[in-house]
Amino acid sequence: MTQSTADPDGTPGRTGSPGGPVGLAAALVPPGAHVLGDPAAPVTIVEFGDLECPYCHDAAPVLRAVVEESGGTVRLVFRHFPLFEVHPYALTAALAAEAAGAQGRFWEMHDLLFAHQDRLDDVGLAHWAQTLGLDGASVVGEAAQEHGDAVERDYLAGTALGVRGTPTLFVDGERYRGRVTEDGVRAAVAAALAGEHRGPRPSPGQGA
């Protein structure tokens, strides 16, 4: 993996649509993606995020509120983009979240890790997993490394789409610009619902 720098607004530049709408859909929402909200929601927000990133921490409740208050019109897809040279625990946190996701607890682990960014070493990761009723050993070390391909897939997809910092958002395939605020994201969602840009459709399969 090459490395990027953290970016509070997640908007380092405009990205095209690799391979057109179908190619963009596959790049943004792969099979087994982690989806929050109605899987059939007409608007998809894709976040490329880092679980140790303070800006992603701040964006998380904003995005959850947009999804939960959308009446089923918005879903959120989380993709890993660990800035491992800037955040020493970002990669192992991503692996732990994937390991929890394989056991049906991705979003719970996602929320716990953002809530406790000061404790993301292996001891902390194992502890947070245990609070979810999981075996702590299943989310660290060799067990977690089994999920490296999923994290790398996300990272490479982000790189191909021009992602350089976190959080970077795409709202129905359109890169979101500006700080992640409820008003800003809702405006982007409204534009998508108005048909101002075409978004990716759901891919087969859904992650926990």
UniProtKB/TrEMBL annotation:
PROSITE patterns: THIOREDOXIN_2. Residues 1-23 are annotated as: Disordered. Residues 1-194 form the Thioredoxin domain. InterPro entries: Thioredoxin-like_fold, Thioredoxin-like_sf, Thioredoxin_domain. Pfam families: Thioredoxin_4. It comes from the Bacteria. SUPFAM superfamilies: Thioredoxin-like (SSF52833). Belongs to the thioredoxin family. DsbA subfamily. This is Thioredoxin domain-containing protein. It comes from Oerskovia douganii.
